[in-house]
Amino acid sequence: MEKYYIATISAAKFVGSATIRKLLDYFGDAKSVWTAKIDELTDVGINKNAFESFINFRTQNPDGPKKLIDYCTRKKINLCSIVDEDYPPILKEIQSPPAVFYYYGKLEPLADRVAMVGTRDNTPYGKRVALEFSEQLAAAGITIVSGAARGIDTFSHIGALKSGRTVAVLGCGINFAFNANRELINKIIDNGVVMTDYPPGQNPSAETFPPRNRIIAGLSRGAIIVEAGLKSGAIITSTYAGEYGRDVFAVPGTVFDNKSAGCNKLIRDGAVLVTSADDILEFYNVKIEKKSSADEKPATKIVPIESVRLEGIEKTIFDAIPSGDFIGVDEILMKVDDVSPVEISSVLLNLELKNCIVENDGTYSRL
Question: Which of 51, 157, 186, 308 is the most buried (most CB within 10 A)?
């Protein structure tokens, strides 16, 4: 019950984790904060904007905690507050840790996590780096943290899901989680966490994403910037990482592409240059067993199709995809019956995660 009161209080504008901590220290628990008289709240001495915002919010939402409990129960949303035992300790170290966050999936508070972020408008080079690095790091037991945006974020999640866990941090209310890529979000929930510190109903906007990046950096030992312009969300994440004392890694890129300008500048300014997942594993002294020199850095883990046991619609769609040549979704749909565009996107993602097919700029081929 306590965490729902904390969550409701933190939904008021200007009421951050520092203000909540001050209120909790004074009143002892969040329910007492919510029910406190105005003159009692005045005695705490919190910021004027936070004080007025909280009073107005509480007046307008007298049943806020109960409504939040009902909503989270109905939607099966989990809640974690900064006073809970399963709150990630590393996240408490940052300057403004979220007082509460909403999530789907399974928390692993002590997991070894590394962020991987980059541009939404990636190049094929950036995509390959994100897929390979994240798959290999996840295989070594490192959880990949990213922002669930299109581009590098998406490929970082997909690569990690092929061999391990991943965490998606949203820049909006968790009720918007499934709007962008339902199939990917469901996979992340099954093999990691989808989380946000924004309350349900908060729309995504240009203003909500930069604060989200502090959580991506705060959850992670280090941040890998794959492709990023000079002014981008990925660079904001790297700035937070540096401020929090986290390690900053950058993948070098061509000097002729603005998408790598941010990464190249980071390297010039002292970020660790990385050209493989092994560079990061060695930096953290993570030892992994390698079977042979031929298997050291596979671009993609190829699994014999007979061992995957495809059935039903997955087998039908897989059989329609050629080996060696790439075809688009429209061509695949022409080869199969009774499959909708909505269904095929989910199946294609599943086949890609099973390492049965590979995607390239919206086209697909068997591995």
Answer: 157
* Residue 123 clears pLDDT 70, i.e. is over it: yes
Give the DSSP letter string of 118-153: --SS--HHHHHHHHHHHHHHHHTTPEEEE---TTHH
Domain count, the chain: 3
On whether both 172 and 282 belong to a single domain, the answer is yes
Question: Is residue 303's pLDDT more than 80?
Answer: no
Indicate whether 1 pLDDT > 70.
Answer: yes
The verdict on residue 101 lying in a domain is: no
Are residue 187 and residue 255 in the same domain, yes or no?
Answer: yes
Query: What is the end-to-end Cα distance of the chain in Å, rounded?
Result: 50
Its domain, for residue 249, covers 113-295
Q: Model confidence at 290, in pLDDT bands (50, 70, 90)?
A: low
Query: Do residues 121 and 143 both lie within one domain?
Result: yes
pLDDT of 57 reads 96
Burial class (CB in 10 A: 0-12, 13-18, 19+), 125: middle
Residues 202, 172: contact at Cβ < 8 Å?
A: yes
Instruction: Give per-residue pLDDT as tens, 12-29.
Output: 989 988 999 999 999 999
Q: From residue 41, how far is each of 26, 27, 66, 107, 277 by CA, in Å?
A: 9, 9, 22, 34, 52
Q: Which of 54-63, 211-220, 297-306 is least confident? A: 297-306
Non-local (6+) Cβ contacts of 227 within 8 A are 118, 119, 122, 123, 125, 126, 129, 152, 234, 251, 253, 259, 260, 263
**Greater confidence, 236 or 338?**
236
173 with 7: CB under 8 angstroms? Answer: no
Distances (CA, A) of 318 to 158, 311, 345: 19, 10, 13
Q: List, in sequence order, every residue forming a beta bridge with 342; answer none if it has no partner.
A: none
Asked if 158 and 41 sit in the same domain, the reply is: no
Residues 287 and 310 reside in one and the same domain: no
